[in-house]
Design a protein that fits this description.
Elements (H helix, E strand, L loop, with lengths): L2 H9 L8 E3 L3 E6 L7 E8 L4 E7 L8 H31 L7 H4 E8 L9 E7 L7 E7 L2 E8 L1
Parallel strand pairs: 4-5
Antiparallel strand pairs: 1-2, 2-3, 3-4, 5-6, 6-7, 7-8
Length: 156
């Protein structure tokens, strides 16, 4: 090993340890500063699709609650219904951007779920998808409340 490599090794920061290892969500990092925007994030394998997604859990320093875990488990077993709920809104927004969408499943890639603070479906929560038909792979996020899509955001 050269002297330059040794110096690089010494100066390289150690990998950051997770703030919490949760029994369901695994390694989680906190973005907690004591306000309404506090959340925890984990990258997990979403078993029904065998695909890694980001899970954002709106919670304070205490971390995810049991009701938020139950929300996730319920979503995992019924995600197709939720995808069907958001599909028309996401397709419409893509078309507003002059993006042609043939089929929701082949045009949108599920990338993240945001779980509401109280873990209730009538709370505000989100599903995010990359639009594969868009050359810039914008992320389309459906904001859901009371079983309805209330807004679609586009990021990227």
């Amino acid at each position: 090993m050269s002297i330059v490599d040794k110096i690089k090794e010494i100066l390289r920061p150690a990998p950051q340890e997770p703030d919490l290892v949760h029994p369901v969500f695994g390694e989680m990092d906190a973005e907690v500063c004591g306000d309404e925007d506090d959340f925890w994030q984990a990258n997990i394998i979403f078993k029904p699709l065998n695909k890694e997604i980001a899970v954002n859990v709106l919670a304070g320093a205490e971390g995810p609650s049991q009701s938020q875990v139950e929300f996730y488990k319920s979503f995992e077993s019924s995600y197709i219904n939720d995808f069907n709920l958001v599909a028309p809104s996401l397709i419409k927004e893509a078309e507003n951007w002059s993006i042609k969408v043939e089929d929701f499943q082949s045009s949108f890639l599920f990338v993240s779920l945001t779980i509401p603070k109280l873990g209730k479906r009538d709370g505000k929560w989100e599903l995010s998808f990359e639009c594969l038909e868009d050359a810039n792979l914008h992320m389309f996020t459906a904001e859901i409340e009371n079983s309805s899509v209330v807004n679609v955001r586009i990021d990227g």
